[in-house]
Specification:
single chain; WYL domain-containing protein
């Protein structure tokens, strides 16, 4: 399940590679959980890769049911990044957070 992979990356302080919207991205997971609608999501800092918005780095909220090919990388995460706040309001139920 994708949420367990996201939680493992967070717990191991490792970066996560994910295919999302047709782009390969390297992200640092800061929190993962479920929205009020029951969608599994993760709040990430995108380190590199592409995206629909054209922003190659920065804060993203990614739905895990739309993510493909998640893999934990050996690269260490630098979480928490500047601007991170615990208790992400986008998540009704948190599974893990920095």
């Amino acid at each position: 399940m994708h949420i367990s992979t996201a939680a493992d990356a967070l717990g191991q302080a490792r970066c996560l590679e994910v295919r999302y919207d047709g782009y390969a991205r390297v992200v640092e997971v800061h929190a993962c959980g479920y929205t009020r609608e029951g969608h599994a999501v993760m709040r990430v800092w995108q380190v590199s890769g592409g995206g629909v918005s054209g922003e190659r780095s920065g804060w993203k909220l990614l739905r895990l049911d739309e993510a493909r090919a998640l893999s934990i990388l050996p690269e260490r995460s630098r979480a928490p990044r500047n601007g991170y706040r615990r208790g992400d309001s986008a998540m009704a139920r948190l599974v893990a957070q920095v």
